[in-house]
Automatic annotation (TrEMBL):
Species the sequence originates in: Sinorhizobium numidicum
Manner of cofactor binding, per the entry note: Binds 1 Mg(2+) ion per subunit.
Species lineage: Bacteria, Pseudomonadati, Pseudomonadota, Alphaproteobacteria, Hyphomicrobiales
Binding locations of substrate: 54, 78, 100, 157
Pfam families found in the cross-reference section: SKI (PF01202)
Origin superkingdom: Bacteria
Protein name: Shikimate kinase
Cofactor field: Mg(2+)
Binding site for Mg(2+): 36
UniProt entry keywords in alphabetical sequence: Amino-acid biosynthesis, Aromatic amino acid biosynthesis, ATP-binding, Cytoplasm, Kinase, Magnesium, Metal-binding, Nucleotide-binding, Transferase
Localization terms from the record: Cytoplasm
Pathways involved: Metabolic intermediate biosynthesis; chorismate biosynthesis; chorismate from D-erythrose 4-phosphate and phosphoenolpyruvate: step 5/7
Main location (coarse class): cytoplasm
Subunit field text: Monomer.
């Protein structure tokens, strides 16, 4: 009898899941990059839990992010965000989408680097602007010239986001395409690590 077993063909999602192991996958990047939307879909594809740190902050504080900024200020928000991220990243695997400022905060960045594989959704100004100007839920953009504010944030933050383990270019393609590129980046990263 022929004893040779067929090689199991693995889907991209399976390969990415294997490569991720017990680590968390953490989405970072500027407002409008797609962290919340693409993070959720990536978790679905991987078959692991998803959590958005802003939603978790809103759940535990019973306030919206906007109200937290208005009532307690950004510094208090960052302290709460760091505590929430520390707890969310303690065990894995899960997908964690962060708010745009999380990785910029030193304490949060430490928890993120320790707790997971980071993927930066890198987008250009016009892509971000087209997405964020449709909603007014982002307190940092309630300025006289929000597009200029976004550009200033890009300049200040992109060198720090660039420390991410993986970078995927966020642009106007189907969300499913973005998810595939994220999965491929995880699988390829694992390959690159092997001797
Ligand atoms: N690839 C994409 N193509 C079109 N729209 C997108 C894409 N990725 C995200 N979006 C949309 O852009 C908006 C901002 O995305 P969101 O996930 O909230 O960004 P973030 O959490 O990074 O601020 C949402 O309305 C989302 O559905
Ligand atoms: O960039 C930032 O500092 C922020 C981004 C927001 O999240 P998204 O990046 O998901 O919009 C939210 O955490 C808060 O408004 C502050
Ligand atoms: Mg978000």
């Amino acid at each position: 009898m022929n004893d040779v077993t067929e090689p199991v063909s693995e889907t991209l999602a399976e390969r990415a899941k294997l490569a991720l192991g017990r680590r968390n996958l953490v989405f970072i990047g500027l407002m409008g990059a797609g962290k919340s939307a693409i993070g959720r879909l990536t978790a679905q594809a991987l078959g692991i839990p998803f959590v958005d740190s802003d939603h978790e902050i809103e759940r535990v504080s019973r306030m919206t992010v906007s109200d937290l900024f208005a009532t307690y200020g950004e510094e208090e928000f960052r302290a709460l965000e760091a505590r929430v991220l520390k707890r969310l990243l303690r065990s894995g695997p899960r997908v964690v989408s962060t708010g745009g400022g999380a990785y910029i905060n030193e304490r949060s960045r430490r928890h993120i680097k320790k707790g997971g594989l980071t993927v930066w959704l890198n987008a250009d100004l016009n892509v971000l602007w087209e997405r964020v100007n449709k909603r007014d839920t982002r307190p940092l953009l309630k300025t006289e010239n929000p597009k200029q504010t976004l550009e200033n944030l890009m300049r200040a933050r992109y060198p720090i986001y660039a420390e991410a383990d993986l970078t995927v270019l966020s642009r106007d393609v189907k969300k499913e395409t973005m998810v595939e590129e994220v999965l491929a980046a995880i699988a390829d990263h694992q390959k690159a690590q092997k001797p």
